[in-house]
Amino acid sequence: MSAPQSGSTTVFGRLERRGVLLGLSAAQLVVVGVAAAVAVAAVYSAGSGGLLVSAPLWVVLLVVGTVTVGGRPLVGWLPLMTAWRGRRLLGTTSVARSTRVEHQPRALTLPGVAGRLELVEEPALGGVLVVDRRAGTATALLAVNASGFLLDDGSVQEHKVGAWGRVLAGVCQQSTIVRVQILVRTVPGGLSRARQWWREHRGATGSRIAEAVSAMLDDGFVSAHRRETLLVVAARLPRGYRGGHLERLQAVVAQLDAVASSLRAADLNPSGWLDTARLAEVLTSAYDPAAAARREGLPARPMPPADGVNERWASIIIGTAFHATYWVSEWPRSAAHPGFLQPLLLGDTGTRVLSVIAEPLPTARALREIRKAKVEHAADAAQRQRIGQIEDEATRAEVADLQRREAELVAGHGDLRFTGLVTVSAGSETQLQDRCVALETAAAQAMCEVRRLVGQQGVAFLAGALPLARGVL
């Protein structure tokens, strides 16, 4: 949901941790119930001796049902580890590149994405639509430029924050928009223009100075970085759409044009929807940033399939690149300046992609979820009072957030479900670990909590690093 503004600060809601009873989820209650049943049965059958004999069983069950590790209860780790072990045994965590796959100009086959994605050039839009028939969506990518937010004075910053809020409000009002993804990419490259200029103006001289300058540009080419911002919009496909029927996509094009117009009204500068060549360049740099940087400034070519994918417990290897994806589990708990993400975006970040995914929720559905949560909190509070347990401040903060959200919905505001993902890339495993430490430090400076999505790196990479608005985890 759009965060309320207080002057030049922003307040975010807390991560909901409510449970069915006493803060425990249904799975935790089942495990605790089994532990209690084992203990009671042992007492009735053999008295205190039976309780001691069965202690290894019911104590383990009690620990599994109540203890939390890494922000996740132990009972929640079991299905994750089981699924990971099953995928390892089936060999689905490693995918080798097939040399027999022929490139199709109007189709896109990506590692980890089920089926083929259809590419539809839309002249009225000036870009390409990525059609996913399985998900029923048509996705377009828009490159966005803006002036420095941090250099503006307070009044201008408040104006821009309010204008961006109106953009999100407009997204909530468009029922055909399924998802919006904002990506801020820091990728290798940025020296292609300098290298091109040097090639055109150095002439035929073979002096040592010319050779030294050429070597310096070539050696420093990959180490330089550039930043770009992409807005990805996924819209619902019209009913009855079939390949080649472009007239049925006109409604989607109109919605995308409306989004671009709202960005211009918010003092942002859309530089155009991405075409097929630019899309291939962006996807290539997402999978293997260093390999894509070496081709910067060269003639565009169709995106080749990745050389190979090897998913590990805490990282994923694609081609020559090592990636690790984090989930922003907690946004700042106190009032924060709208530019609080500066440590994650600026500085010596290396290759990094910050992705914020927003999913509009229908008002009726959002109100149902809020009222259901309030009922659960009320039942939990009654149970705590019955057993004499004191309600903690975190629970009271969650209830206050629910009341605020409900009041805003009743007042006519929209509701958005936000997810933040950060993907770090490197050329080696050692370099990846160093950059992960730098990311965790930057997140702490931004007053955010991040968790490495172990056992889910493949899905997390698709959702966070690829500009396809694949959806939240």
Description:
The model is unreliable at 1-6 (pLDDT under 50). The chain has helices at residues 26-53, 55-66, 74-90, 154-173, 192-201, 208-219, 250-265, 276-287, 289-294, 342-345, 363-387, 393-410, 429-445, 457-464, and strands spanning 5-6, 9-10, 68-69, 72-73, 94-96, 107-108, 117-122, 127-132, 137-145, 177-188, 225-236, 269-273, 308-311, 316-318, 321-330, 351-361, 415-426, 449-452. Strands 5, 6, 7, 8, 9, 10, 11, 12, 13, 14, 15, 16, 17 and 18 form a 14-stranded antiparallel sheet that branches. Strands 1-2 form a two-stranded antiparallel sheet. A two-stranded antiparallel ribbon has the order 3-4. It is globular and about 95 Å long. It has 473 residues and is an alpha+beta fold. It has two domains: 5-189 and 225-464, no CATH class; 193-223, no CATH class. Helices cover 43% and strands 23% of the residues. It contains 14 helices and 18 strands. Helix 4 (154-173) packs antiparallel against helix 7 (250-265).
Give a brief rundown of this model.
This protein is α+β, with helices and mostly antiparallel strands. The protein has helices spanning 26-53, 55-66, 74-90, 154-173, 192-201, 208-219, 250-265, 276-287, 289-294, 342-345, 363-387, 393-410, 429-445, 457-464, and strands at residues 5-6, 9-10, 68-69, 72-73, 94-96, 107-108, 117-122, 127-132, 137-145, 177-188, 225-236, 269-273, 308-311, 316-318, 321-330, 351-361, 415-426, 449-452. Helix 1 (26-53) runs antiparallel to helix 2 (55-66) and helix 4 (154-173) runs antiparallel to helix 7 (250-265).
